[in-house]
């Protein structure tokens, strides 16, 4: 599998370009901004889009909360990369499940398509997102009854480690779940790069 997980994509775009060996340039990325709809601030999404364009990528936006089934299928099919933005992880999972995009994304990623996640978009690949209740408000997803997630990785990404305004919440999650879950904390200037079976936390100098 080809998976690149970030806390803040704009801060590690240099690592992403290296991860793709520069092959991302000229390619189309299916960008799913859905998680950001449940948040008041979305400056990270604007920064991520700018970073993707600077990396030479063409953005094809897919809002799964409003898209038709056909749109979801065709846009995921067309894109060379799948990018899932940050925001509220619970709202994101609710909409991915409701639209069936969760299954389609998992199929594409298992078939080798590169998945890029930012914050919520990274965490949603864990087996479950229950551990994130201190970081995100579950009430943003009133129709989500199960926290079982995409399970494309067997660990639990924990974004924004040591970064404001999440320091305390992340520390609480570490204390609460360190003995039961394989947590992988990573900061805004780090990424979890997965190529095949190789998993590595990388740090950007930028």
UniProtKB/TrEMBL annotation:
Keywords: Hydrolase, Protease, Serine protease
SUPFAM superfamilies linked: Class I glutamine amidotransferase-like (SSF52317)
Keyword Cell inner membrane included in the entry's annotation: no
InterPro entries: Class_I_gatase-like, Peptidase_S51
Listed GO MF terms: serine-type peptidase activity
GO process annotations (BP): proteolysis
Family: Belongs to the peptidase S51 family.
Protein name, entry field: Peptidase S51
Species for this entry: Stutzerimonas stutzeri
